[in-house]
TrEMBL record:
Top EC group: transferase
UniProt KW Endoplasmic reticulum keyword: no
GO BP field: regulation of mRNA processing; spliceosomal complex assembly
Family note: Belongs to the protein kinase superfamily.
Tagged with keyword Kinase: yes
Matching InterPro entries: Kinase-like_dom_sf, Prot_kinase_dom, Protein_kinase_ATP_BS, Ser/Thr_kinase_AS, SRPK
Protein name per Swiss-Prot or TrEMBL: non-specific serine/threonine protein kinase
Lineage: Eukaryota, Viridiplantae, Chlorophyta, core chlorophytes, Trebouxiophyceae
Length: 411
């Protein structure tokens, strides 16, 4: 699933496909394959457009995802089919189910199409205009997503782009993970250019080998957003993307707060080579150069600043040999640039002060999130472990509330 293959002019199976790049535009009422009747448009993204269809063979509503035409998008369609095949016919209540896949022709162009479950919306839209879900609903959604992720991981699949937009939801709070086509098979990982920056694990940004644990990191990010409708590591939440920057420097000495958070202690007597730009680094591929020299590099740098602020310094003992480490850090393991107006509160403080959450709730949320937001991927729990933990926490909270209500009735 490397970046170079998607610039190829041929599909993954070697067949030629048209180079036009446009969305599919069927008329309402059109029947595809003598089976799927187009009822209307559900939405669209950069890769595809989704339609509501009626499966005439069973009389049920489905969602039809149709990729844009062109060799690039046909590659994504082929990747999605490969991911679906990896499920080997197994299904899970919290992962979107595919019922059919085929190709449609329009104006001499080929569009890949996949028929899926239909849901009422996605979590991003459900959160819009709210102050976040309740603690109970957050736990319920979180556990379902974690179970769905574990199902994918058990089949050797990394989702690689877990975020609220990729979690579908119904009014009864049942959820399904979608957009599995953005994922990859564990044994085929070969690119760092995957996912959405705000939800990326540090090993993706800095360039270390990675696995299913990047999804667990994203799961930790999701918890905060479910409660607040804000992205925990979104650079624009804590500081402007055009903010003045400075070297991280040694504003906190040895034994200070950063060392208590698990970051590497600063060295002594070393030359501070902090600079922004003009770094003596080379890149192996064009895609890597784009990654570190363009806007995405700046966004990733600010992303690391947000991590540094909320959970402590990125430990050079783990990431020092990573591919892109010298682009972001100096020889002392300090970030080459940090926004001057970065928010230095921890997760609990932000939840209490910014989002007016109960202090005990905020402390528990921070504790739960920090299980997933661990710099060392080997120390992160599995998605299934996270689900088990949250279910236990939820049961205890319900039992505690029930006992309290019982005492009030007796009084």
């Amino acid at each position: 699933m490397g970046g170079s293959s998607r610039r190829d002019s041929r599909s993954s199976d070697g067949s030629d496909v048209p180079q036009k790049s446009h969305y599919y535009h069927p008329a309402r009422g059109l029947v595809l394959k003598g089976r799927y009747r187009i009822e209307g448009v559900l939405g669209h993204g950069r890769f595809s457009k989704c339609f509501e269809v009626t499966d005439l063979t069973v009389g049920e509503r489905r969602a039809l995802k149709v990729y844009r035409a062109s060799s690039e998008f046909y590659e994504y369609f082929c990747n999605e089919k490969k991911i679906l095949d990896a499920f080997k016919g197994d299904t899970h209540p919290n992962v979107i189910q595919a019922f059919d896949r085929f190709e449609v022709e329009e104006d001499d162009s080929t569009h890949g199409a996949i028929v899926y479950d239909i849901m009422e919306g996605d979590v991003k839209k459900a959160l819009k205009g709210t102050d976040g879900f309740s603690v109970e609903d957050t736990r319920k959604i979180f556990v379902q997503v974690a179970r769905g992720l574990q199902f994918m991981h058990d089949h050797g699949i990394v989702h690689a782009d877990l975020k609220p937009e990729n979690v579908l939801i119904n009014k009864d709070m049942t959820v399904k993970i979608c957009d599995v086509g953005s994922g990859m098979l564990v044994h085929e990982i070969d690119s760092f250019r995957v996912g959405t920056v705000a939800y990326q694990a540090p090993e993706l940004i800095i360039g270390l080998p990675y696995n299913t644990k990047i999804d667990v990191w994203s799961l930790g990010c999701l918890m905060f957003e479910l409660l607040t409708d804000e992205c925990v590591f979104d650079p624009e939440m804590y500081f402007a993307s055009d903010a003045d920057t400075e070297s991280e420097g040694d504003e906190i000495g040895e034994g200070g707060a950063d060392e208590e958070k698990g970051g590497d202690a600063p060295g002594e007597g070393e030359e501070d080579d902090s600079t922004l730009g003009e770094m003596d680094c080379t890149s192996e591929t064009d895609s890597d150069e784009e990654y570190v020299e363009g806007y995405e590099w700046e966004l990733n740098h600010f992303q690391l600043s947000a991590m540094r602020s909320l959970i402590g310094r990125v430990p050079s003992s783990i990431y020092g040999d990573a591919k892109f480490f010298p682009y972001f850090f100096n020889s002392r393991g300090r970030l080459r640039a940090m926004p001057r107006n970065i928010d230095n509160r921890n997760i609990k403080e932000i939840l209490v002060e910014e989002f007016k959450k109960d202090a005990q709730v905020a402390e528990q949320v921070q504790s739960d999130m920090m299980m997933a937001l661990v710099y060392d991927p080997a120390l992160r729990p599995t998605a299934g472990d996270m689900a088990d933990h949250m279910e236990r926490t939820y049961r205890k909270a319900v039992q505690k509330t029930s006992r309290f209500r019982g005492r009030r009735k007796q009084q």
